[in-house]
Amino acid sequence: METTNYRDRLQLPLEELVDFVENASIPLHWVDKNGIIIWANQAELEALGYSQDEYVGLPISKFHADEPVIHDILARLTNNETLVNYQARLKCKDGSIKHVLINSNVFRKGDEFIHTRCFTRDISDMVQEADRREELLRRLEDSEEKLKISADIIASSYDAIISKDLNNIVTSWNTSAERTFGYSAEEMIGKPLSILLPIDRLAEEQEIFDRLSAGEIVQHFETQRVTKDKRLLEVSLSISPIRDKKGEIIGLSKIVRDITEKKQEEKRKSAFVSFVSHELK
After folding, report:
1. What angle do CA 161, 192, 263 make, to 5 degrees?
2. Beta bridge partners of 89
C-alpha cells in the first residue's frame, strides 16, 4: 500500500513541477544552442536584479563579466561536457559583480542540443573573504619585509641607534652602539639607559622627553655620555618619539653620533688660532 502511494506521488501534476523549478531557492536557467537565455526561474532573476523581460531572450554572454569564460562554457556544453563548480563572474543590474559556481549540462533529443540545465551558486562572500585574507597576508608580508629592511638598516648603521621605553629601560641596541659604548646588546637591553649618563646629566633624559611631548624636534643635541670603560664621549643626539596606534608616546628612539674627535679637532684649531694670534701681536 505504501509503495503504491509513493509511486502515485511520483506522478506529480505538471503544475507542481513547474512551481518546484520556478520557485526553487537555487538560481536556474536554460540557454539554447545559440547562447540565448530561454528561461530563468525567480531565484535567478532576483540574484542578478533583472526582470523577466530584461533577462530572458537575451544572449547569456551579455551577463558574463568575462567573455572568454562564457565562450569556454558554451563550447564545453556543446561538446557534451558536464560542468561542475565552474567559476565565473556575472553582471548584476546595479553594476555589481557576483562570483558564482556553475553546474550545467545539456538536455538533448537524440543528438540535438535543446537547452542547457544550469544551476548557479553565489560564492561572492567566499571570494571576497578570500581576497581580504590574501590582502591581509600581502600587507603582513610587506610589513615584515619593511621591518626586516629597517632592522638591517639599524643593524648596519654607522651611528649608534638605541630605543628605550618610558621607564628609561633600553629596548634595542644596535651593533654601532656596542662599538661606541663598549656594552653588548645582551648587557644593555633590559637595563636603565642612565648607565650611560654622567652624574651631572642625569636629569637630561626627562628634559628631552618633556621637549618631545611638547611637540619639539630634538636633533643634533650635543651632550656627553660615558662608555663601559668610563671614558667620557662627546656625542650628538637626534631623538624621535615612538608612538602606538593611538598616537601616544610609548618610548624614544635615539641616533647617537660620537663627535669626540670632532670636538678635539675644534679645540686644536681654536688653540692654534689663539697661538698664532698671540704670536702676531
Report:
1. 50
2. 99
Rg (CA), the chain: 38
Number of residues assigned to the chain: 281
Residues of the chain within CATH 3.30.450.20 domain(s) are 2-128, 155-280
CATH code assigned to 155-280 = 3.30.450.20
Which segments of 157-248 does DSSP mark as H helices, in order?
175-181, 185-188, 204-213
Within 117-158, where are the H helices? 124-156
Tens-binned pLDDT, residue by residue, of the chain (281 aa): 455 554 555 555 677 877 888 888 889 999 999 999 999 999 999 999 999 999 999 999 999 999 999 999 999 999 999 999 999 999 999 999 999 999 999 999 988 999 999 999 999 988 888 788 778 777 766 666 655 655 555 555 678 889 999 899 999 999 889 999 999 999 999 999 999 999 999 888 888 888 888 878 888 889 999 999 999 999 999 888 888 888 888 888 898 989 888 878 777 766 655 555 555 55
Backbone angles phi, psi at 244, to 5 degrees: -90, -175
**Contacts of residue 239, Cβ cutoff 8 Å, sequence gap at least 6:** 208, 212, 218, 219, 221, 252, 253, 254, 255
Domain 2-128, CATH homologous superfamily name and number: PAS domain (3.30.450.20)
